[in-house]
Specification:
single chain, about 100 residues, about 90% helix, about 0% strand, rod-shaped
């Protein structure tokens, strides 16, 4: 048997954690959206750079292109990590709502 005080604390804690999880979820979605836009821009830039490289006298941008591709890979990895975190937050939120 739990005391009314303990039940109130548990309820307040669950409400606070639910709010925090909700806010984090909103921010994760916003970050994912901005990263998707960034990836799209990077893909566009990479295609433009490839067309420049195909020109008869290409400028020396191969190292820049390689760095851009490395950044893209890192961005995709961070995006996957954020997705995993978002999934965990949703599971925590659903567990809190059940209790």
């Amino acid at each position: 048997m739990t005391s009314p005080f303990a039940a109130e604390i548990a309820s307040d804690l669950a409400a606070t954690l639910t709010h925090i999880v909700y806010e984090l979820d909103i921010k994760v979605v916003a970050v994912q959206s901005s990263q998707a836009e960034l990836i799209k821009e990077m893909d566009h830039l990479a295609s433009e750079l490839h067309s420049l490289l195909a020109a008869s006298d290409p400028p020396p941008i191969d190292p820049v292109l390689q760095r851009l591709l490395v950044c893209r890979k890192r961005l995709l990895a961070v995006n996957a990590s954020l997705k995993s975190s978002q999934d965990r937050l949703r599971r925590i939120s659903s567990l809190l709502l059940k209790n």
